[in-house]
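Data deposition worksheet. Section B asks for the primary sequence of the deposited chain exactly as it was used as input, without tags or linkers unless they were present during the calculation. Section C holds the resulting structure in token form. Section D is free text for depositor observations; keep each observation to a single sentence. Incomplete worksheets are returned to the depositor.
Section A, Depositor: J.P.
Section B:
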Amino acid sequence: MTEPDYVIQTRTAYDTVADSYAEAHRDALDANPWDRAMLGTFAELVGRSGPVGDLGCGPGRVTGHLASLGLDVFGVDLSPGMVEVARRAHPDLRFEVGSLNALALDDGCLAGALAWYSLIHTPPELLAPVVTELARVLAPGGRLLAAFQVGDERRRITQGYGREVSFDAYRLPLDFVAGLCTAAGLTMEARLVREPEPPHEKTPQAYLLARKPS
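Section C:
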């Protein structure tokens, strides 16, 4: 099956910047109480009820944080370069290469799924099947936490972390993503939008928490 261009471009870009990206974001959670609060709430709600997938895990920094909160967590990422970095940084955790479009996971196998800024590289018109895939792998009662930049635009990224890259990122309307979750059979539990924190953030940031009905 031929992969879409946006998938190939995204993988290539993150392979290119894997090491520098990991270094730049290594301590990002330490400086962001909002992120820690949402991840902590997610961890408390999921608890020890089953495995958790950090889906689009990048270099594994959030995966490691969730593990420190007591979750049985593993990571999946499109970029082999990112997975290699994650395995080096967290040798005690499991990381696999995979795509949100077709997760190599059984139906209903996860107590929790994290989509931490991993929806933003899929064109909005193609996002519905991705969210449906996230819902598919959740067990009844399982929870999805998604984070993304709020807006309604496509950005072409040509420079990142000191390297030349070429891929797209999308800012997404809050109600649009919430609607996709509802259409996939999930029940919305919470939504939060916070103002950007300069200099690195230029748009509001959103967190959505949804639950698969029991």
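Section D:
The mean pLDDT is 96.
The two ends are 35 Å apart (CA to CA).
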